[in-house]
Amino acid sequence: YERKDQTKIQGVLEQLRPLRVIPFEKRTPQEKWSHMAVQLPGDIGGPNKEKIRELLSAKCQGRILEAMCGFNSYFELLPNREVIALDYCREALERYPFPERTRILFDLNMVRSKKSMTFFREGEFDAITICFGLNYLHHPVIVFREFRRLLSPGGRLILVENPRQGYWDMSRRSF
User: Fold this and answer.
1) FRET pair for 42, CA 20 to 30 Å: which of 19, 32, 35, 49?
2) Assessment of whether the complete model's pTM goes beyond 0.90
3) Starting at the edge strand that comes first in sequence, how are the strands of the sheet with 125-131 ordered?
4) What is the pLDDT of residues 134-160, one digit of tens each?
5) Considering only CA atoms, which of 81, 76, 86 is closest in space to residue 53?
6) Is 1 helix (H, G, I), strand (E, B) or coil?
């Protein structure tokens, strides 16, 4: 483009802006997670993934909110189970392995005392799970209050974490 056509130049620069490379250490937490969701070829859960899947399958039936699911799922397709996937990372939800499931792009850190997940009804879920995500919640008590509203009577909140990563201490401080 010629220098005299500044409008076209600015338009091209705006189109290129999303493609620029930002150094990893300068990225926001969401940008870092989005990058990992695209880059990681395998999955999370390691050698215990099958054990976790068996445990959750035994404990969770009905309508389940798989919160902070990332690009992974611990729930197989079963006729007595409906899973809703929720995560704050668009790239992770795009890679989520079950295209037939409802996917919701939402950051649980947006839940505050006065703001809730109004797109869900009270008592809508039989179970809510977070697998390897508790550490990412800024205000877990507030989020869990909202989960209590969303759980049906007798519903289950199930957290799966790595006890070697300090989650026990964090859980004791928060709860």
Assistant:
1) 19
2) no
3) 102-105, 81-87, 62-67, 125-131, 151-160
4) 878 888 889 999 999 999 999 999 988
5) 76
6) coil
